[in-house]
Amino acid sequence: MNINxxxxxxxxxxxxxxxxxxxxxVVFELLDARIPFSSKNPExxxxxxxxxxxxxxxxxxxxxxxxxxxxxxxxxNNGVSAIPVNTITGKGLKQVLQTGEEVVKEKMQALKRKGRxxxxxxxxxxxxxxxGKSSMINRLAGKKSAQTxxxxxxxxxxxxxxxxxxxxxxxxxxxxxPKFEDQEVALKLAxxxxxxxxxxxxxxxxxKLIEHISLQHSDLIEERYSLGNIGESPLETMELVAKxxxxxxxxxxxxxxxxxxxxxxxxxxxxxxxISLEKPCDxxx
Length: 285
Hints:
GTPase activity, G_CP_dom, elongated, Conserved Hypothetical Protein Ylqf, Chain: A, domain 2, 6-stranded mixed beta sheet, GTP-binding, 2 domains, Rossmann fold, single chain, alpha/beta, GTP-bd
C-alpha cells in the first residue's frame, strides 16, 4: 500500500507560512500525542527557523501517559516546551497560554524598554490536517473563532483570532509535506485519520493497525472484542472481531469493510485503549 498525497493548496500554505512569520512572536506546533514524530511536518524546522516554539501534544487523552511523558522529556532536552492537551475537557490549555507568554517575555520587555507601544503577543499555530487545530483554536479563544479585524493577514485561509489574555493567533490551513519518504510514517498518519480513508484500501489499513497494536497491546484487542486470544495473524484476528461484532453478510461471508471501519473508528476514538504508536527512542537518527 503506497500512500502519497500532496494537494496543491499545501504548497500555497507553505509559502504563506514563510510570508507571515515576520509578524509572529512564537509558533505553536500542534502534534498528535499518539504519533508526535509522524505527525510532525519535517519542513517546519526549516520554515520557522529560530522563532520561539511551543509544542502542543494534542489528543493526549488517547495516548499512553508514560509515553507522552517521555516525549515531554525528549522536547525538554532539546530546549522546547511540550504540553499535553485534551481539547474536549480543556486540560492543558491554560498551560499552553502561559508558556506562550513566557517564551517571548524577554522580547516583549525589550520592546517596551525601547518605548514601543504594548501589543498582543502574536502566535502562529501550525499542524497537519485533522490533528485538531480548529478545536484547539476555538478552545483557546473561548468561543467559535472569529476574525479580529483590521490587520494584515485577514484573508481567506488566514485570519487573526483573539485569544484569552494578551494573545492573538494567526490561523493557517493544515499542511502536509510533498511526499512520504517513509511509508511507516504514512501508515501512522492513516491510522489516526490525518489522511482520508478514501484514498487507500481500508481493509489493508485495518490489518496493518491490528499488526501494530498486537505487538504491544494484544490484551487490549482481546478485551475490547471479547476474544479469548488474538488470532495467529492480523487477518485471523480481524475475522474473530467480525464474528463477535456480527459483521456477517449473506451466505455467512465476513464483511471485511465493515469490520475494518469498526476497528479504525474504535482506535481513533480511544475505545480500544490509550495507545501510543511511537516513542522518542523510535526516531531514526
